[in-house]
Amino acid sequence: MDDFARAVEDGLKLSKRLVLPGGVPPPRPPAGMERTVSAAAAAGPDPRLLPTAPTAYAVVTDPGAVDTPDVPSYQPYVYGRLDPPALIPLQMKEVDLAVDCALDAAHVTLRARWWVHCVTRSRDCDVRIVVPMGEQGSILGAEVSVGRRSYNTQVIEVEDHTVLNHGQIESGGLLKPQLFFLTIPQVEGGADIYATFRWSQKLLYDNGRFSVDIPFRFPYFVNPLPKVFMKREKIQLTVNSGFSKEVLLQGTSHPLKEKARQGDKLSFLHEAVVENWSSKDFNFSYSVYSADLSGGVLVQPSTLRDYDDRDRFCIFLLPGSGNRKVFRKAVVFIVDTSGSMQGKPLENVKHAVSATLSELVQGDYFNIITFNDELHSFSSCLEQVNEKSIASATDWMNSNFVAEGGTDIMHPLSEAMALLSSVHDALPQIYLVTDGSVDDEHNICQTIKTEIINRGSKSPRISTFGLGSHCNHYFLRMLASIGKGHYDAALETASIESRILKWFGRASSTIVANISVDAITHLDDFEVDSEYIPDISAKSPLCISGKYHGTFPETVIAKGCLADMKEFSIKLKVQHLKEIPLDKVMATQEISLLTSKAWLSADKQLERKVIKLSIQHSVPSEYTEMVLLQTNLDKPDATQKVKQKLKGHKGPDEPRVPLHGLKLGFGDKDATRANLTTAFGDAKQPEKNVILQKASGCCSQLADCLCCMCCIKACNRMNDQCAILMTQICAALACLGCYECCAEVCCGGSDS
Q: What are the VWFA domain coordinates in residue numbering (predicted)?
């Protein structure tokens, strides 16, 4: 993202040309920030320029278009073009945030209005809107209106890939994980942009407390002048726990007022005229009162829109805030050390594994296996956890975590299963970390499934972690589902260590194992979305969804085994939902699980189910595309076209532009075999701004070189046009604040 931050930095320098109504300059940074930014400039672009809240940017290729829309500032005209373009953050007029929390997910709707304050009305520019999302954010839709044009996203089935224009990558998609963007073309200076974005994200859970975190820190430069615009900030939040238990407010970042409380449903509101937009992320935390394990069964009848005529259920279990004993563990880490893991990925994994070892306690056992073409083990057997063994393991990792060779997953998995076969007094657990995709993934799943069935309740739990985009995340998700473990992934290098620690924390904190539910004895048909019911962790709620035919009894019994080997049972009340749209809340999880099943079984009917579910809930999938549709409201049939889109139809002349980066894919075996460095979607090497590409009436040598010394050497003369052009170049560089470059160009520096 360095190139993005650098483009914003260039845009902020360009915006210094603006003089707003009343002769007032643009908003200035807070005291001390400008000095800090200047001091850090030599080290690269300031990371604080990356979007920390929904932000719109004018994409400026022609610096001559930068001016106030209504009152010209009469700044010197700047010739030339910017490549790559500068990004000028637009001032925001309104913002409205609505958050609906239900079970373990939050659905977020954000509405905002920006205006193109930095481009004269006689010109236009593209506008890029960037929306950062929270934990495991998944975009559900967007609508943008500009003048007589409107744009909206739609999820469609991909029958013919040639219909879509895959060349316009800048049109929208993911800049990086949890950072969605759209580019709206040819927006006139001074125009207002109305936008609505919807996404879902996971609620965080820690020690009995749910919390939702939404990026909502607006930088100073998006604040319009208070005397020109009144800034009204609105935040709405609803909480529906799904249980007939008291919901306790734990904390909030913004001054929310409770508006209503009906049973387990609460609603809050914050609405105020503010001097500046929010300077902190929105956070809200709450707990569902329970001293011990609690839960319920939520059921919802099918609708005519559902892809399946069976009714839907969700079994939701909370670990509670009590101090139940965690199972003793026998842990085997399996770490990919193939050549593609070189550099930061393997280094970050090593740090994370070292940190997880320190979380093991006396009575636990562990071992570490690294694999590429070959297999290397820290020990020939499981080691007891103590200071000496942990120190030895750390030294061993420092010597043996070397990236080289290919990828072979089955061999180390078999070795780990063999190591754990003799464990009787601890819960056996395997933690697989890989960045690659292999040819025998289907065989691995079937082999492990057979092994787990044969071993029964004493089979190892298998948790999987994927790095980057080369690995098959659906294989890893399915393997974790078969192994009653946990799946997670890091799609950015910087997040590897923190995500592995959270993943290990959830998977290693088992308090109830071997869960079974007696509902199947009362129903005609009962199907769970996941392969098996996972264990209950002290650090995450358990959410099991599926479909059924028949009638649920008033209560069902869930049973399991505690850490002291005693049997555990809990009576779960069945609730028929009216307030919570269960299909909407569970859609993202259901699509991921069904896609994993479809991949393993190659079942076309399952693929059709995923497609229908994806289109119904506007959740992108591997078998659908999210596209951006444009409607011209000036056309007489605009109303009819809107109605067609709402019904899922596309007008004959309506352009469809695909949005990119919304799919994980099924791995890249060719990249794995070639040991290509793991693809994380991290920042590319930034390009330099070329202020001037071409100038008419000047020698062709000068068009290719900004250095007047090189031009004179090439032409042996400098005519009047060259002198004028050099003056314009210096003015453009000075406008961007690049005085050193200006001096180099005008005084004969050697670098062009």
A: 330-515
